[in-house]
Amino acid sequence: MMNKICPKCGRRYTEIENYCTKCGIELEKDKNRCSGNKTAMCSHRVFEDDDMYCSYCGSLTTYAKAKLE
Ligand SMILES: [Zn+2]
Ligand SMILES: [Zn+2]
After folding, report:
1. How many domains does the chain have?
2. Pairing mode, if any, of strands 12-14 and 3-5?
3. With 80 as the cut, is the pLDDT of residue 28 above it?
4. How confident is the model at residue 1 (pLDDT cuts 50, 70, 90)?
5. Do residues 24 and 56 both lie within one domain?
6. Same domain, 20 and 43
7. 63 alpha carbon to ligand 1 midpoint, in Å?
8. Does pLDDT of 63 surpass 80?
9. Which end of the chain is flanked by fewer CB atoms within 10 Å, N or C?
10. From CA 4, how far away is CA 17, in angstroms rounded?
11. Is the pTM of this model over 0.85?
């Protein structure tokens, strides 16, 4: 599970939270990436929000993984 950090006050939030409870600003969303990183190509690729699997190694994307956990 990845965490988001408020860029203004530094509070930590879980993946599913979109706004800082203290500042009210929108938290930066991590891009949908390969969770396996088994090939050199994986870390350079950003997938669409609804992509479930990495096209290079077949691992789940980070968004798909977060939804399953
Ligand atoms: Zn904040
Ligand atoms: Zn991959």
Report:
1. 2
2. antiparallel
3. no
4. low
5. no
6. no
7. 23
8. yes
9. C
10. 8
11. no
Q: What is the mean pLDDT of the chain?
A: 90
Q: Judge if 54 and 26 occupy the same domain.
A: no
Distance CA 7, CA 37 (A): 27
Which residues, other chains included, contact 24 with Cβ-Cβ below 8 Å and sequence gap of 6+?
A: none
Cα(41) to ligand 1 centroid in Å equals: 34
The partner residues of 14 in beta bridges, in order of sequence, read: 3
Listed in order, strand segments (DSSP E) in the chain are 3-5, 12-14
- The size of the chain, in residues, is 69
**b/e map 6-42, b = 16+ CB within 10 Å:** beeeeeeeebeeeebeeeeeebeeeebbbbbeeeeeb
Ligand 2 centroid to Cα of residue 1, in Å, is 17
